[in-house]
Specification:
Low-confidence stretches: 93-109
Shape: globular
Distance between the termini: 32 Å
Order of helices and strands: EEEEE
Number of strands: 5
Mean pLDDT: 83
Radius of gyration: 13 Å
Helix content: under 10%
Structural class: mainly beta
Length: 109
C-alpha cells in the first residue's frame, strides 16, 4: 500500500531484510528530504555513524528519514531511509515533531 505523501510525525512501518532474516521496523517520520538534497544534513548533530542505517546522501526522488528507537536501556534511535513504496502507516501519529523539510545542504557525517 503506497501512502504518499507522508508528513513528519507520522508512524510508519516496513519490512527489511538482512542476512536472510526479514524484520518489521516501526518508526516515526523524522524528516522529508526533497530530491537532490543532502539527507545527512537533517540528522541531529549528535548522531553517530552507527545510528545511520542508510548510505546515500543524495537521490533523484523525495525520501523520508524514519527514526526508530533502539529500545532497551538506551535512549538512542537509529535513522533509516526505506524505499517509499515499502512504507505503510503503522498507527496513530506520534506527538513529537523534530524536523521538517531539508532546504539547505548543511553538513555530511
Amino acid at each position: 500500500m503506497k501512502i504518499e505523501p507522508l508528513q513528519v510525525g507520522m508512524q510508519v512501518k516496513w519490512r527489511s531484510q538482512a542476512r536472510g532474516v526479514s524484520k518489521e521496523k516501526i518508526g516515526t517520520v523524522y524528516a522529508i528530504v526533497e530530491a537532490r538534497k543532502n539527507a545527512f544534513a537533517v540528522l541531529p548533530d549528535e548522531t553517530t555513524r552507527g545510528q545511520v542505517k542508510f548510505d546515500t546522501p543524495y537521490a533523484d526522488q523525495k525520501r523520508y528519514i524514519v527514526e526508530v528507537p533502539r529500545g532497551g536501556k538506551t535512549a538512542k534511535s537509529d535513522y533509516y531511509c526505506p524505499r517509499v513504496t515499502d512504507l505503510q502507516l503503522a498507527g496513530a501519529e506520534v506527538g513529537k515533531v523534530k524536523q521538517t523539510v531539508v532546504e539547505d545542504e548543511g553538513h555530511i557525517l
